[in-house]
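Case study 2.
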Amino acid sequence: MMKCFRLIFSALLLINWANAISNPTGKKIVLPALPYEQTALAPYISANTLEFHYSKHHQGYVDKLNDLILEKNLTDKSLEEIILLSASEPTLTAVFNNAAQTWNHTFYWQSMRSKGGGEPTGKLLEKINKNFGDFSQFKKQFIEAGAKVFGSGWVWLVEEEADLKIVATSNADLPLIKGQKALLVCDVWEHAYYLDYQNRRKDYVEVFLDHLVNWDFALKNMS
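Prediction:
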């Protein structure tokens, strides 16, 4: 149990840091700046998609969350504390949905970079080979997981105990509340890809791995 809590509270210090830098008072959740220009992921994700996804959808979750945490007197808590507190409390479902989506999107932006993709190296590749057989098998399973998500959701590479796993979650669900440590994520909500790929979600997930994924970020998140 203690190991589970350590995994939860050690996950994603970068996201806490991003919020702290943008909002030193800690009284309000803010939209962290993108780690690249809105044109940086083109042609794989267009500036148009990034503008709507980041400035409309992500900002919308942040704005709604700030209204809710004021209403529920949660302004003294960090984003992760709000997620963990609201995850199993039915009266705080709206808080959880907006807090988790705020966290998930920040993590997603950091899971990509310009001129990303390809195979990872070092201990991350070794772990992938150990847990999935080889990188081609990992890639196949990740793409299949993304294509099979019913409705809206996310596909994660997570660390659980000593193993790496591919985990698909629906809606706002995330590994943080399951005692898993997220390494990277691909957003498979339609607004993440539809302007560029229409109904070809599988193609989008494949492009994510081939050209966008930030393996350095995933490596930093490993234990």
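Strands lie at 153-160, 163-170, 181-187.
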